[in-house]
Specification:
The complex is a heterodimer of chains A (646) and B (258). With 646 residues, chain A is an alpha/beta fold. Chain A contains 27 helices and eleven strands. Classes of the chains: A alpha/beta (646), B alpha/beta (258). The structure holds iron/sulfur cluster (2 copies).
Chain lengths: 646, 258
């Protein structure tokens, strides 16, 4: 019987080839920059990260998660048993029966993969990925039949040489795809790279329910700032790109892609794979970047990415909304990669498109993006009688005003919030003219030098004063203060105003009436929701106003960006639609008359949509509208005033 | 473009009008931009002052390999040092801003340099279209977007107007790495300058035009109309005495002379 000697030979040679492939692949990753990981504990944590964290994401699609458990579980089990039974020739009925069972399991899983691939949604890649379900079926069926004699079900040598030949062909196909292909760039590469990516992820804090969203600082003394060529990425970033399964979940969520801007996060990750391994995108079998034809992109580990592989406009289209990262089952970090490459364009090439250069110059010269006089930061509050930190030195709450201070629409939100703070008798103070732009926009535009300079100066100012917490109405400042100032010595407890007001309401420190009016929907700002996990407080607060939120189809962690993040309105890369318009359509679909938001940038973007459209209001405004002001403190104020005048 | 063209762009330390912070001066940066477009990286950028001045890095970030600094202390007269250097090195073209954003800001530097070098001065240029056979075709910027074509023989001094192409973005990395090369240089104290008192400008009351507009469109028109100078008079052929008298009368009328 030819299979008796052929099977072990095939198994051994495929294993040897796969090993060679693995060595080569690892060397491609190791061409990246050093990034310290804990190898042992990473590998130990890997199974748990796979079973818990990864499946937490995959489970959003029940069909696929069950399918994957059956197929992948069946495969891993089968492979181990195949080695025991057919390579080491352990004669055990029990093992053989186990192998039969695992291959059946895998076969069942594979049929579901096959069904999903019958009519694949456009987000899925075709090409070799259409072959994969067949390979899975062939692999499992072949080894099922081959194992029947060992299990004693059929006699040795059944079926004669015809069947033996067919089975041999099946073995070659199955092993070729599943084992050889795993390390030589076939679809199964995702299992190999994915497993290691889980073990050596650059943001291990993300596992076990944690969150890690702050960008990592640039070493400003490095010979090249930002990522110019694929090998400028950290090695585990390269590993991460290689883990992509081309499921296109990121593509389906990306607002820039939907708006017809030249960005597709899935394609971007595949372009990074082309970059790290060398080649062209001619064989890419998914949706292209809108408006950019396939086949012209070329790259290699040591060639400049933005010259031939990725068009800079692709990078500048991103709003850094993190919808892709949130959705990615392989936990790939698209936003890190995009900002890394932007850093090169801004810091090394001086090529920030649109109004980018002007905004950065303004930030450098005036600490605000529009070039307003730094000394006029408090003009909005001329009538508010706010305590300023430089005078009081100490307060319970530091109110971070943000650049909304210069914008008339945002000032209404600020005023509303101040009204609430005063009504609740909160001991708060502002930094006044000592406050600077948080650096959010500069950082997302790739100018980490300006970000760091702003951050350091802000931290130096804040560290002079004593306060318990910071509260801000701007989710971008919120994120930066909370998650990105730590690298510069600023460790604070930071709250978004909706969280803080919600606390005040719960403690009974402000009394509210009920909101009047029609249906209300709520738009989750990316930097509040996905970046910081705050989905509940705004909703609780709306409920406290007696509002039943009519949720949009995409809400919570799946909220669609308003288009205002990441400096996108500044770089202004043209597309076919505007992201803000699409978001307003989402809101319209709920029949809402009012969109409640928690961000001045979202307010600006959504109010920029042409009428007729629902009204847009910040939650602070909604709460302030129905605030029941107790008469007592007001009269006391009048007395004080009288004394002063007298 | 001639390959051997030797262009020097002079740069000063600018000052942001709102924050007063040192920065890349807008016109000087345009001079550097023009220089870069005419002769690429070979353009020589020159500053008289302190090599440690951080804002010089933002010129360097436009893609300069190096920037030469004639070391001068704070109270020195930069135009003297620059004049010395330029007569020694004899470049083909010297580009400057129209006026500095800080210091005396008199706009005299290009004039003083042209005088010292004995070269023609072209003021407020928007572009240098072509340089051929030792002659440059220059576009001079006039008010309201008008341009005047001028031909000048090399060498010459030109001051670059705000109408010139905006300077490219300054990139941090190259700006950090560019070499700022200090040259010890003789200096002479600027005595005129030393006698100045510097104080923040006071806002002068603005004469308001009465606009009798009924509709928004009319108000818009009034706000954007170019000044007509309707009250003026053109005197071309009258004898000089009469012309002078007219000016004198106007100054009296406006209260400039009393
Ligand atoms: S990057 Fe992630 S979400 Fe996007 S296609 Fe790849 S695996 Fe799927
Ligand atoms: S962060 Fe948002 S805009 Fe950027 S690629 Fe991901 S989904 Fe698209």
């Amino acid at each position: 019987m030819i299979l008796d000697w052929l099977l072990p030979v095939l198994l051994l040679s495929v294993l040897a080839l796969a090993l060679a492939g693995a060595v080569r692949r690892v060397s491609l990753w190791r061409a990246g920059q050093p990034s310290p990981v804990n190898i042992i504990s990473g590998l130990m944590a890997m199974p748990r990260r796979y079973l818990v964290d990864l499946h937490h994401v995959v489970e959003r699609d029940k069909y696929m998660s069950n399918t994957h458990v059956a197929t992948a579980g069946g495969f891993v089990l089968s492979l181990v048993l195949i080695l025991l039974v057919h390579l080491f020739g352990i004669e055990s009925k029990l093992l053989a029966w186990a192998l039969l069972a695992s291959s059946v399991l895998m076969f069942v899983g594979a049929t579901f993969v096959y069904k999903r691939r019958k009519n694949p949604p456009s987000r899925l890649s075709k090409g070799p990925w259409m072959r994969l379900p067949k390979s899975l079926l062939v692999f499992s069926a072949t080894f099922f039949i081959i194992t029947l004699p060992a299990a004693g079900i059929l006699p040795e040598g059944f079926g004669g040489w015809v069947l033996a030949l067919i089975l041999a062909a099946g073995v070659v196909w199955g092993l070729g795809e599943m084992v050889f292909g795993m390390t030589w760039g076939g679809p199964m590469k995702h299992a190999f790279a994915g497993a290691l990516h889980l073990a050596f992820h650059r943001r291990p804090e993300r596992f076990g329910g944690g969150r890690s969203t702050g960008l990592k600082p640039v070493d400003l003394d490095a010979p090249v700032l930002g990522v110019q060529k694929p090998t400028d990425f950290k090695w585990n970033q390269l590993l991460g790109f290689d883990a992509c399964v081309q499921c296109g979940k990121c593509e389906a969520m990306c607002p820039a892609f939907a708006a017809g801007q030249p960005l597709n996060p899935k394609k971007l990750i595949q372009d990074m794979v082309i970059g790290l391994a060398g080649g062209t995108d001619a064989k890419f079998a998914g949706s292209p970047y809108p408006g950019i034809e396939l086949g012209n992109a070329k790259g290699g580990p040591d060639s400049t990415i933005t010259e031939g592989l990725v068009n800079p406009d692709t990078l500048w289209s991103c709003t850094t909304c993190r919808a892709c990262v949130e959705e990615c089952p392989m936990m790939i970090e698209h936003v890190d990669a995009i900002v890394d490459m932007r850093r090169f364009l801004t810091l090394e090439k001086g090529n920030t498109p649109g109004k980018g250069a002007e905004v950065l110059d303004n930030l450098i010269a005036t600490d605000n993006p529009n070039g307003f006089e730094p000394g006029s930061r408090m003009n909005w509050a001329a009538d508010q009688n706010l305590k300023v930190m430089s005078e009081v030195k100490e307060a319970d709450v530091l109110f971070w005003v943000s650049d909304g201070a210069f914008d008339m629409r945002s000032q209404r939100i600020l005023r509303a919030f101040v009204k609430l703070l005063k009504a609740a008798n909160v001991d708060f103070a502002v930094l006044g003219d000592e406050e600077r732009d948080s650096g959010d926009v500069a950082r997302r535009l790739g100018d980490d030098a300006t970000f760091q300079s702003l951050a350091k100066r802000n931290v130096a100012v804040m560290n002079q004063y004593r306060f318990k917490r910071i509260v801000t109405t701007d989710p971008h400042a919120f994120h930066v203060l909370k998650n990105e100032y730590g690298d510069f010595g600023g460790h604070y407890e930071v709250l978004h105003h909706t969280t803080f007001i919600n606390e005040l309401v719960k403690e009974g420190r402000i009394q509210l009436g009920a909101h009047k009016g029609g249906t209300v929907t709520y738009h989750d700002p990316c930097y509040l929701g996905r970046y910081n996990g705050e989905y509940e407080s705004p909703r609780e607060l709306l409920a406290a106003l007696g509002i039943q939120v009519a949720e949009m189809e995409r809400s919570g962690f799946r909220s669609r960006c308003c288009g205002g993040g990441g400096g996108a309105p500044i770089t202004d890369i043209p597309g076919e639609r505007r992201i803000a318009d699409m978001r307003m359509e989402d809101a319209n679909a709920t029949g809402a008359e009012l969109v409640a938001v928690g961000c001045q940038q979202c307010t600006a973007m959504l109010e920029g949509v042409v009428e007729p459209r629902p009204e847009v209001k910040d939650i602070a405004e909604l709460v302030a509208d129905v605030l029941v002001e107790s008469a007592e403190p007001a009269s006391r104020k009048r007395d004080e005033l009288a004394v002063e005048v007298a | 473009m001639q390959p051997e063209l030797n262009i020097v762009a002079l740069v000063s330390v600018g000052q942001h009008p709102k924050s007063g912070r040192a920065r890349r001066a807008e016109q000087d940066a345009r001079a550097v931009e023009l220089g870069l477009r005419l002769s690429g990286e070979k353009v020589q950028v020159l500053h008289a002052g302190d090599v440690a001045e951080e804002s010089l890095r933002s010129y360097a970030g436009m893609g300069l390999k190096q920037l030469r600094v004639l070391q001068q202390s704070a109270g020195a007269d930069a135009s003297l040092a620059l004049g010395d250097y330029l007569s020694e090195h004899q470049p083909d073209i010297v580009l400057t801003g129209v006026r500095a954003e800080s210091g005396e800001s008199s706009g005299m530097t290009p004039y003083l340099l042209a005088e010292k070098l004995g070269w023609p001065l072209v003021t407020r240029i928007a572009d240098i279209a072509k340089i051929e056979n030792g002659e440059a075709e220059i576009l001079q910027a006039l008010p309201r977007g008008q341009r005047r074509a001028i031909k000048v023989r090399l060498p010459f001094v030109a001051s670059v107007d705000n109408a010139a192409e905006a300077p490219r973005q300054s990139a941090y990395g190259p700006g950090r790495r560019a070499q700022l090369e200090p040259l010890p240089w003789v200096e002479a104290a600027d005595e005129v300058r030393a006698s100045f008192d510097e104080a923040p400008a006071r806002k002068r009351p603005k004469r308001l035009k009465m606009v009798k507009a009924k509709t928004a469109a009319e108000r818009f028109k009034a706000a954007t109309a170019k000044s007509q100078g309707g009250g003026g008079r053109i005197m071309k052929d009258e004898p000089p005495r009469e012309q002078a008298q007219a000016i004198f009368d106007l100054l009296l009328e406006e209260g400039v002379l009393r």
